[in-house]
Amino acid sequence: MHLSASTPLRGSLVISGDKSISHRAVMFGSLATGTTEIEGFLPGEDCLSTIRCFRSMGVRIEQRGSSVTILGRGLRELMPPAEALACGNSGTTTRLLSGVLAAQRFSSVLTGDASIQRRPMKRVITPLCAMGADIKSISGNDCAPLSIRGKQLYGVHFNSPIASAQVKSAVLLAGLYASGQTTVTEPALSRDHTERMLRAFGAKVSTGSFEGRPAVTVSETENLYGTEISVPGDISSAAFFLVGASIVPGSEVVLRNVGINPTRDGVISALRAMGANIEVLDIRNEDSEPAADLLVRYAPLHGTEIGGELIPRLIDELPVLAVAAACAEGRTVIRDAAELKVKESNRIHTMAEGLSRLGATVAETEDGLIIDGGAALHGGEVESYLDHRVAMSFAILSLVIDGEVKITHPECVNISAPTFYEDLEQLRN
Fold this sequence. Notes:
By secondary structure, the protein is of the alpha/beta class. The chain folds into 2 domains: 2-16 and 232-428, Alpha-beta prism (UDP-n-acetylglucosamine1-carboxyvinyl-transferase, Chain), CATH 3.65.10.10; 19-230, Alpha-beta prism (UDP-n-acetylglucosamine1-carboxyvinyl-transferase, Chain). It is 29% helix and 26% strand. It contains 12 helices and 23 strands. It has a 4-stranded mixed β-sheet. Helix 4 (122-130) runs parallel beside helix 5 (165-175), helix 9 (318-326) runs parallel beside helix 10 (347-357) and helix 9 packs parallel to helix 11. It is globular, with a radius of gyration of 21 Å. The two termini are 19 Å apart.
């Protein structure tokens, strides 16, 4: 795909459904008794992988665009799959399902594409095995494919070394089946969609702190109960347009119905720290998943430091924040973000490489990037590494570059944002 400099971005956009919430709504609806209705579902490849996995275990799921109806089988009535469960490119599907499958009355195999087979799974294998699970990496490298034999599980207190919603969620899902109570503590609070949604499905969940660390506890659960879920727009998808409108002079964009869960809204904080002009309008659904309209106008950006407890609140948005940094005056330091190395690609390396190819001044560090903004940018070819957030980030950077930017495998955006290019064109016209 060839992209080049843009006229101002103007207009309004309804942001497609939140990927993290869509995954969980399908999972919990499948594990509940009764019917679950989901509106605002994200029909991206990752979330469709979750649907396919649960269909393979006997769950009736009807999906019509962004509407999904699930006739749940209950926590303990999933059917043994006839073959390995294919998770595609989805780390969320792989890790969260491992927690569910660990307690079933059958054996199963979780696999995925080449990217998934390189991503670390020991982070969920270790705590689940501590609960009594029988999970093995078939290749012996602590990656998928995973062989899982369902066992009786026991509640534990898992002190997670990393702030990861996927790790926390895998353990909490296993905790629904485990005797006694299961508690997860983290070094910083990761996104809390699982805790919020489990309550909506009727599980007993308590949150607080333990020895100064965020903690969440679930108890063994007999049943979850089908419900209605309205999925807000994905702030990770909105982030690309927040940055685009911030860096293209004359832009003014309204992003409709964006989720602003306080464990996810770090990108707004970071951009405001860089001087961005973002207004949060009409906040709603504060008791479940808060959402709002975001008004963003062009504003000159300056460098900042992004690190510490902010990182779990914006880990997926760091690639496009690196683009904002390249367009800002002064130095931006991104630190404490080693987790970027184990995403769909090593995002520290892929962003540094791509930005450098387009003329930016950037250095890789062990846990982040140092970007000196204001360098003269030029066209060129960048490698997406089949990473959807990398491809979208460079598409946004192309808006301020004289000359063409060629992105390899631009179609990988379908993983999380199938309408991304159409949405971008809408705002450019």
